[in-house]
Amino acid sequence: MRSSAVISGALAVLLLVLVAVGWTPLISFDRSVAEALHRDAVAEPGLTQVHRFLSDWVWDPWTMRALAAATVVLLWWGRERRLALWVTVTSLAAVGLQQGLKTLVGRDRPEWTDPVDSARFAAFPSGHAMTAMVTCGLLLWVLALRWRGEWRGWGALTGLAVVSVLGVGWTRVYLGVHWPSDVVGGWLLGWFCVAVAVLTYRWSERRFPRTGPADAAGRENRSGETE
Fold it and tell me: What is the domain extent for residue 8?
């Protein structure tokens, strides 16, 4: 997990720099992909409406945050206070990082004479993509800590999370409100946040061990983990 955090963080920084300086190959790639998908979106209004529904309601950041909030409530109710705190802090930190980078980079969104959707504020990184990655990553981590070996639906849920993360990124580019590199940046930064959360949580468990039935069960589930 440590290497995952380093790699995702390094790639995110590299991409941020390339976007900030306007690296020509990246900008050309972004524009060519965005233009091709925009033509399809204009030509297929029915399919575009499906994309808008998925982007604005199913995979919307507020939907994801509500899911994270529900997870926190369940963890707190189940006396997993430390884990609930980690999910809360990571989710809030991700929002702060996302908004800070949007302000810092100030990248313009794609502009079209015939737009099929609209969005406000700066483009990089994609808030939808980053929030989906953070929320889905945290949920899978929480489930893996507690119930992975006991729940047969683990594979299906993992597949749903992957589809959600990839799907929301696709819809944002298809709807013409983000460049492809905005989405990739959101994914990388989201994964970095999750990796840091896992690492710091494991450190806290070693540094400040807890006692109690719930904690003992949690330690048993994590006994085989490695970094």
Answer: 2-222
Which residues in the chain come in under a pLDDT of 50? 213-227
pTM tops 0.85, yes or no: yes
Tracing tokens 């990082």 back to the chain, one arrives at 97
- Domain count for the chain, please give it: 1
- Cα dist from 9 to 2, 13, 185, 216, whole Å: 11, 6, 10, 33
Provide, rounded to the nearest whole percent, the portion of the chain with pLDDT above 70.
90
Q: Is the peptide bond before 45 cis (omega within 30 degrees of 0)?
A: no
The pLDDT value recorded for residue 210 is 72
Angle at 194 between CA 148 and CA 192, to 5 degrees: 140
Cα–Cα distances in Å, from 166 out to 41, 77, 115, 128, 160?
18, 31, 23, 11, 10
Q: What's residue 212's pLDDT?
A: 53
Q: Rounded CA gap, 152 and 184, in Å? A: 31
Return the CATH number at 107. Answer: 1.20.144
**Structural domain includes residue 23:** yes
- Let me know if residue 201 belongs to a domain: yes
In a domain, 227, yes or no: no
